[in-house]
Amino acid sequence: GGGAYGAAKAGGSFDLVRFVQQPQVLARIVSAVFALIVFACLVGDGYTSLPENPKLFCIFNGNEDACRYGIGIGVLAFLACIFFFMVDVYFPQISNTTDRKYLVLADLGFSGLWTFLWFVGFCFLTNQWSWTQLGTVYIGADSARAAITFSFFSIFSWGLLLTFAY
């Protein structure tokens, strides 16, 4: 305790069990899993075709932007979780308080932005799903519902990361 920007003084050994038990690390892992679920559902079953037309279309009311948005924020959120996870690993080794400050501010800003973007994504996907005619979606309805559900959960997991960064 008593260190700069929430970490002890630089140096010391790395304790994996203690590291993984930290609340922000657990929240980051959960956020990464949620992001992985969202973009995997959309990449795997987010596009379908009709029997009479082999051209693929997004299952969210045929709106390609809905699938692209979900995949985009999901992939970027997953990559950001990996990046900030690595920052969490090396954070105690950073001795410069200015560098620590910028990393914490980057985490704070990114978490705030992604909390908002997940909210927008949840609203967008939910709206497009409500306009989707279920007769046109034979496969992928469960994946669409999962993407919507985990977009909703991601709002809270990224909000938690925002709180921890603050």
TrEMBL record:
- In terms of one coarse class, where is the protein primarily found? membrane
Note one Pfam family from the annotation: MARVEL
Q: How does it sit in the membrane?
A: Multi-pass membrane protein
Q: Tell me the keywords, alphabetical order.
A: Membrane, Transmembrane, Transmembrane helix
Q: Which organism is it from?
A: Pycnonotus jocosus
Give a Gene Ontology cellular component term annotated to this protein. Answer: synaptic vesicle membrane
Localization, UniProt:
Membrane
Keyword Membrane part of the UniProt annotation: yes
The similarity annotation says: Belongs to the synaptogyrin family.
Extract the signal peptide range.
none
* Gene behind the chain: Syngr2
Q: Which residues cross the membrane?
A: 25-49, 69-91, 103-127, 147-165
Query: What positions does the domain MARVEL occupy?
Result: 19-166
Name by which UniProt lists this protein: SNG2 protein
Q: Which InterPro entries does UniProt cross-reference here? A: Marvel, Synaptogyrin
Spell out the PANTHER family in the cross-references: SYNAPTOGYRIN, SYNAPTOGYRIN-2 LIKE PROTEIN-RELATED
